[in-house]
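ok so dumb question maybe but i'm new to this and my supervisor (M.) told me to 'just get the structure for Gamma-tubulin complex component' and walked off. so i did the thing. is this what she meant?? sequence i used:
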Amino acid sequence: MKAFFSENSKQRYNDIFHLLIILRYVQNELNNLWLILKNQHKNSLILHLRNAMSFFINNFQYYIQIDVLEYKYQQLIRSILSSTDFQKIKYLHEVFLSDIQQHSFMLLATAYQSIRNILSICVSFCLTAKQQENNNNFDENILRQFGRDFNDEIRLLFGILGMVQKHNALPHLGVFLTRLDFNRFLTNNNGSFGEF
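this is what came out, is it supposed to look like this??
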């Protein structure tokens, strides 16, 4: 196994799993916030913002899990089954990891930083909303700032990914952008989820 999994491969797996774990954590935090707010809160701002964040996170996770990981894994298995050369299989494995990182935007620094910022904003929003719920004191200015920060990052990411798609660099990117821009909502709102 040591001959197959280089230090570079291990680091790539660490980076990929790190993204997947954080993505799942954020998804759970948003779901837990919904459980807290669903029956007792009338503030549509906080629910609207949570729903927008959840929409993005759920679609991004689906894209990573199905359009990237599952697709690339099936491709790798087919390639391995048709090969008998160990060095070629090792090479195919490296290509697999590289493709996953590329299609997850980990190799596109500006897009990946924007994704990390979005994840951070979502976690901070959840923590703040839970704290304000416990204190029974919702500060709309703070919530609106989270909305503006979230929209700014979504707008930036949507623009970057739109430019990448125009160059047909990533085949499944168009499907992800179509899911995000359902009914051209983001396009009609200048790349954002609307006013918060």
